[in-house]
Each structure stands twice: as structure tokens, then as C-alpha cells.
Amino acid sequence: MFWKTDKKYFVISLFFLSFSLSGYSQEPKDTEDWSRKPETVTPGKKNKPPSDAIILFDGKDFSKWTSAKGEVQWKRKSGAMEVVKGAGSIKTKDGFGDIQLHIEWRTPKKVEGDGQGRGNSGIYLMGLYEVQVLDSWQNETYYNGQAASIYKQHIPLVNASLPPGKWQVYDILFKAPVFSEDHKLLSPGYVTVIQNGVLVQFHVELKGPTLYVGTPEYQYHEAKLPLMLQDHGNPVRYRNIWVRNIEL
Ligand code: MG
Predict the structure, then answer these.
(1) How far is the CA of 9 from the centre of ligand 1 (A)?
(2) 2-14 pLDDT per residue, tens
(3) Number of domains within the chain
(4) Which one is predicted more confidently, 114 or 23?
(5) Quick one: 91 and 159 in the same domain?
(6) What is the CA radius of gyration of the chain?
(7) 131 CA distance to ligand 1 centroid (A)?
(8) Claim to verify: residue 10 and residue 106 sit in the same structural domain
């Protein structure tokens, strides 16, 4: 008898417990978050920069860039910049950490060389971590060295390359590695790349700075470092380069 009554109360309390756990006791406003109002950003039209972007190159000059050899010796041609063999890689005067980067590039229409020798350049995040630029249109090379690879670290998900001479777009999301005050690695870097509207790298973990030979290993560096574009001896062009600092 007692058991039967207890059982009834048990079932009733279980019913109310599940009712409250399912969230019915909460008001809609209990889960509204008013802690941070997103800044207003006006999106750009047709690959044009959004309102809060830092323009790194719009075809006019190299004022945001420098080179190990001093003044930038690359050419400016019809709104683009072109690598000049032997003039050296160029880097931004400012440093960047976590960013959204938009950059357009074009390998030479006239195909010369093959493998790594065909339309090779590169975008070095923080001057250390390379997103490969290469003519990968019907041009076989090791897969973690083709266009949109994280050079010698990550093969792109697909080959979204356009033919030589066509302008291509990279939209890159970069989370910089984090180091402690005593220079230990707290968190590795991560990269996402969209090439010509196609996802080619999704949140891949950087193993360390890009190396041609050997296994990469992290070395402490500052939280913000210049972006670098590589002179690999081929007349690759870049244009419409802009960046947004991401506040994470
Ligand atoms: Mg390269």
C-alpha cells in the first residue's frame, strides 16, 4: 500500500523534474546575451574590402611594404604587383596576429618550368607560416607543396586552381600561435583557406614555421609579425590585398 502511494509520488515528482529540466521554468530573456554589441562593418562589394579592413595594396604604391634589401624592387603593373626575380621577398611594415586576409594572385600566363618551378610564390603568415602559391593547373608536384597547401604540412582538401594567367583569390583565416611569458607554446596556430570560393584548408594546425627541409618545430616569437610575400624567382602577381584584425 505504502509502496503504491510512494510510487505515485515518485512518478509525479519525476514528471515535474523533467519538466523543469527541459527548460520550461526559464524565461526566453534568461538566455539573451547583451554583453557585447557587435561593431557595425559595411561589407565590400565584389571582393572590395569591408569598411574596417586595412588596405595593404590597392595597386597604387608599396607604402605598406618593405624588403630586406630596403625599398621594394617589385614591379607595379596594371593595378597589381609582380615579383621580380632576385629582388627578394617583401613584407608588410606592420605586424599582424589573428587575421582575416584577402589576397588575389596570378601565375604567369606563359607556362615555364614545372613542379615547384612553375608560378611559385607564397604568402607567409607572420613571415613564418607559408600558404603556398603555385600554378597547380595540371602541374603535379608533392601534394603538400601544391597551391593552397600549408607548405610541407597540409595537403589542400581539393585542387581549386584556375588555369595559368587567371586571377585567383585566397581568403585566409589565421589564428596565431600563443606563447607564455616564459616562451612556452600555449596554443599552436590554425589556418583556414578558401580558394576561389572553395574551402581548401579547414582549421588545420600549424606544426611550426615552414621548412623546406626537416621537421618544423615552434620557436617563440612576438604576438604580431609582418606578413611576407615570397620571391621564388617566378613573376607571380598580387593585387587587392587587405586584412582585418580579428578580435578573438
Ligand atoms: Mg612558395
Answers:
(1) 72
(2) 555 566 655 556 5
(3) 2
(4) 114
(5) yes
(6) 25
(7) 8
(8) no
Domain range enclosing 117: 54-245
The pLDDT of residue 183 is above 80: yes
Instruction: Look at residue 44 and tell me if it is in a domain.
Output: no
**Percentage of the chain with pLDDT > 90?**
86
CATH number at residue 89: 2.60.120.560
Q: Give the distance (Å) from ligand 1 centre to CA of residue 60.
A: 25
pLDDT single digits (tens) 79-98: 999 999 999 999 999 999 99
Reference 245, options 61, 65, 68, 92; nearest CA is: 92
78 CA to middle of ligand 1, Å? 23
pTM of the model: 0.89
Which pLDDT belongs to residue 68?
86
CA of 180 relative to ligand 1 center, distance in Å: 30
E strand residue ranges, 168-248: 168-175, 178-179, 185-187, 190-195, 198-205, 225-229, 237-245
Please give the distance, rounded to the nearest whole angstrom, from the Cα atom of residue 143 to the centre of ligand 1: 13
Please answer whether residues 215 and 205 qualify as being in contact, where contact means their C-beta atoms are separated by less than 8 angstroms.
Answer: no
